[in-house]
Design brief:
The protein is mainly beta. The chain has one domain: outer membrane lipoprotein receptor (LolB), chain A, CATH 2.50.20. It is 14% helix and 45% strand. It contains 4 helices and 14 strands. The strands form 2 sheets. Strands 1, 2, 3, 7, 8, 9, 10, 11, 12, 13 and 14 form an 11-stranded antiparallel β-sheet that branches. It has a 3-stranded antiparallel β-sheet with strand order 4-5-6, covered by helices on one side. A hairpin with a 5-residue loop joins strand 10 and strand 11. The longest helix is centred in the middle third of the chain and has 17 residues. The radius of gyration is 17 Å and the shape is globular.
Length: 239
Amino acid sequence: MNSLAKLAIDTHGGLDRWKQFETVSADLAQGGVLWHLKSQAGTLDKTNVTVGVRSEWASHSPFGKAGRKSKFEPGRVALEAADGAILEELREPRKSFAGHTLETPWTELQLAYFAGCAMWTYLNLPFLLAWPGVVSEEVSPWKENGENWRRLSASFPDSIATHSSKQTLYLDETGHLKRHDYDVEIAGGAPGAHYIDAYTEVSGIKFPTARRIFVRQPDGSVNREPLVVSIDLSNIQLR
C-alpha cells in the first residue's frame, strides 16, 4: 500500500480497528434528480442500509413498501419479505444494464443493485484500498475552492462490484476524503463527482455524513446544477 492510501486509512480510524467489525449500518435520507430520472422516485428516500465489511453485500430496509428489504451481492440481487422470503431475484444483475444510458429507467431489482453496490463502496472507503486486488497510486494534486488536495488513482478488480474499475479519491492534508470521482458504468459511463463532508466518529472510525453528487466535466470541473444525488447519514452503527 502506498503512503497516501495508508494516511487515508489511518486518518479514518486505522485498518486494525476496522477489522474488528463485520457490518456498518446507517439511516439514509436521499434526494436528487437521479431517482426520478430512473423512474424510482420515493423508493429509497428514507431507509436504512447495512453493508458487509469482510465480504461484499448490502441490504436496504425498507425497500419501497414497508416490510420489504433488498439483498445485494455482486452476482445476485433480490427483494425479500420481512421474514426473508424471496419476492423477486435477478442473477448476474450487472448484465441487465447492457445498453443503458443515464436516462434509461431502472426496475426495482436494478435499483437494488445500484444502491447496494454504491453504499457498499461508500461505507467501506477508504478501507477498500487495502482489499486484495485493489491497486492505488498517488497522482497529480488538485486545487479547488482555494484548497489543495492530494489524489489517489484506484483500480478495482473484476471481483469487486463497484461503479467503475478506475476511480479517483481526493484527500485534504490530514488524509480525510473530500471528493470521489468515478464513471457509473451501468448508466452509460455517466461521470460523477461525489463530495464528502460533515464527519462524525463512531466506535473509533470516522464517517462522512453528508454526500453530494454532481456531473463531472471532462476537465474535472463540476456542474453544481442539477444535484444528481444527495445522501445524508445518521444513526451510524458498527457491529
